[in-house]
Amino acid sequence: MKFFIKVFGCIQNTADAERIKAFYYDKGFEEVDNWKKADLVIINTCIIRESAENRVYGLINEIDKFNRNPPALRAPSLDKEGSKKIEIIVTGCLAGLAYRDKTGKKMRQLKRDFPTVSEFLPIEKISFEIEPLRGKTGIALIPISFGCSNFCSYCIVPFAKGPEISRKMEDILKDIDKSLNDGFKQVMLIGQNVNSYGSEFGETTLVSMGKKRFKSLFPKLLEEVAKKDLEKISFVSSNPWDFSDELIETIAKNSNIDRLVHLPFQAGDDEVLKKMNRGYTSGEYLELVKKIKSKIPDIRFSTDIIIGFPGEDEKAFQNTVELCKKVGFEIAYINKYSPRKGTLSAKIYKDEIPMKEKKRRWVVLNNLINNKEKTL
Ligand code: SF4
User: Fold this and answer.
1) What's the pTM?
2) Cβ of 148 below 6 Å from ligand 1
3) Could you report the per-residue pLDDT of 196-250, keeping only the tens digit for each?
4) Ligand 1 pocket residue status of 192, Cβ below 6 Å
5) Which numbered atom of ligand 1 lies nearest the CA of 237?
6) What is the pLDDT of residues 39-78, one digit of tens each?
7) Measured between alpha carbons, how far is 72 from 105 in angstroms, rounded to an integer?
8) 196 lines ligand 1 (CB under 6 A)
9) Ligand 1 in contact with 152 (CB < 6 A)?
10) Alpha carbons 374 and 355: distance in angstroms, whole number
11) Is the bond preceding residue 237 a cis peptide, omega within 30 degrees?
12) Distance from CA of residue 297 to its chain's centroid?
């Protein structure tokens, strides 16, 4: 029996896919590189943006069409008449969102919309204990936490993945030892809010950049990982409010920790940041960047930006441009705002900026940060 896995979305989904693959190999399946050759197609979904969600629906429809009109190219395990269909399993955020809806309404809706999908599999059914089948990129992806408890107003992740849950430090360190044994020299620690790792075990309550936090164990974890015989340790995604002095010190004193830090700021305007429920001001973000630069002179930053959020007028957009100029980001992942059903911003704000204007702002920032050579 053969399976094909299609992964949409973030690096967390890529890491989850490595465990999903191992899960199906254990069941006797073998991976193929084309869904048309598979008996089973697993779709690890992302719903963070409408376009990603539409691509998931598009693939399911294509498989349905293929099953209705099977051409000659079929998996060997399928009979000649094509009476056996390619089975579809949907996991990731789409399944997670329905699974977490205690009323059962969302799951019933999904089953109605996609009657050909055999299973909507919540990712937590694929245990962290499963040893992942890692890719050949040279970087071992190590999930350290799952879910998010922050509720930024535009984001569906806390609803799709649930509250943040951290893995035990000893399990993470064992996972790293295994990847070292397998020849990996680089690891990437992954979490939705990686630098709040372990805060559910933390005892001290802090208020950091307007958000109430429990003390994170991330600096301690990073310190332990840095002692291993690794050439490079990176982590993604960190949030400004959990970027503590202790974390800055840990990075500064360990040269095997990557100097390119991903630090999403999303918007450079305080009113917009407030509406996004990000819990910091642009001034606080810039102060943090200044502090990190002073302690780690060779630090570089990448970031995430949302443009066209409700209320982002030209002045607010220029504040974002100014912040970018001050930080000097190396890379930016720039997203045009689109409301996600079920989030606070979709409920209370009107998506008022025309797409044409969002595209214009996207080009301005992309030229400023990602296409520097073209603007010289
Ligand atoms: S920190 Fe905010 S943007 Fe990031 S996953 Fe959590 S809710 Fe979403």
Assistant:
1) 0.90
2) yes
3) 999 887 777 777 887 778 889 999 999 999 999 999 999 999 999 999 999 999 9
4) yes
5) 4
6) 999 999 988 888 888 899 999 999 999 988 766 655 555 5
7) 39
8) no
9) yes
10) 24
11) yes
12) 28
